[in-house]
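Quick check before the chapter quiz. The format below is the same one you will see on the exam, so make sure you can read both the input and the output lines.
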Amino acid sequence: MAPAPDVRARFARCNLDGATGSSLRPFEVRAFPQPSPLAKIIAMTIPLRIDRILGDRPFAEVGEPTLAVDDERRRLLAVAGTHTALAGMQEFGSSAPVGVYGTDDLACRALLRARYPVHAMAFHPVLPLLAVGTGSYDGGYFFEGELLLLDLETGMPTSLIEHELGRQVLRLEWLNEHDLRVLMAPPDDWQDKDAWGEGHVTVVSRPDWRAVPARSITSYDLAGPRVTAPRPDGRDDARQSVSSLSADWDPRCNVRAVEELSDGRILATLDGIRLESWLPSGQRQWAVPDDEGGRDLVIAADEQSAWVGLMRPEWGKLPQAVVRLSLEDGTQLDHLTPSAPMSLVRSADGMPALAPAGSAGERSRLRIRRGTRIYFRETVRAEGERNPEARETWLVAAALEAMPAAERPREPTEAAARRLFPYSWIPGETHFAGPGVETTDGALVHAGTVHHGHGLQPGGSFVVRRQPTNGQPAWVFRTNRKATGLDCDAETVYVTYDDGEIVGLNLHDGTVRWRRHLTVAAVLAVPTALAVAEAGRLLIGTSDGRLLDCSIT
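Here is the expected output.
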């Protein structure tokens, strides 16, 4: 028996108001349409050009396919990918990509990212629309989800279910141009042992589906009889559909670090791969597979080897590890097992170092490139407070001079570490960590987010330049999305964000030099790694596993 509406509303408020860290509002869908003509004109005036793409292949945008549905009349194939988090974005929610491709040229026509795993898709028989059903169990009570309608001409999606928790949609079928048959999981499994194998079916009718407003399908529209509702696994069929059109697809995703060698080779870490090497010709020279993949990357001064920090979830069975790999063929040369979570960073002298990463996952993992000291974020018991639970967070640094250079990464000792200043420059605010860099004059430029119980708020993401003596900000740039990468040259700070935007900031005063959304073949790409290769060149890794060699003109 389903709970009364007020009970569902109370559970909904608990879900939405808890400190979950999710930056996605209820039923937010990230739509990645083709840019408008005006957007293309504006983009042409911004000095960022993609000169070369490594790791490009058919169906790159969706990664590992989980569901595929074709439209023979329009020669289209809709492919849904695995529900995953962007690199470093685990605490900010996950998404599932849906790409619509032409079966003749395999070009991506439209792309969206849904909040929940995708279970059903159906092309409208007449209109340029794709219905998408998503959902999942919340882990304790509700089957949540969305019914989305993707307009294939505009690339814009609409979330149709009125209730803020929605329903988990399991199957979709267009009976004709007006009627859509919808199979859903029950609203919840409260005292319902059959909820995982049964559901409700209904037919939703609308005279013109292109004119249906957002959140206009009510609980009354979705009321229907209880029926058997199997949950089939469409992954094998999806792989077969994709493979029948191209044998070159590869479920690469989440580039986490990218760097260039002096001989023109490009190195990258990503999900499922510790490290890979690409030749100047554009061919992949070698790749070292891994259960989880590589994360941090520091190249040795002689460029004969590189240190790689491996992805190891705290709840997993594999211990955290840092490995040294030969750059000739990827052979492992050395292995470290840190006693606590660490970030691998490149110091100003070019040597690798291990910076304590804290116990809060990505939120406490400060990564400062080219530091003259090893910087990290540390939370300790507040001094002078009666409440034993009171905490304060500091920026801490360890002098490199106290740790002699060695082939192995240096790790700061307690004796070498010094608290510099409070991590947050605003009293009462808790600031989470992110990527950063130390400038040639010793200033720190780093990104982060402001903690809020309702998730990331407008203006809650920042990039700040701080004085090395007292931590006071010289400037602060704020936006609404979480930074995924940061690096700088002598004049500009480059920042990438999880909505696909890349911003160039004046290093000295923080003003915006330029900003644009990153597109590949007229489809938005989400940058997940960034490095300044040399003056006028950027290397960008993306969530779909591509490496972009870009020039700044």
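If your answer matched, good. The longest strand covers residues 284-299.
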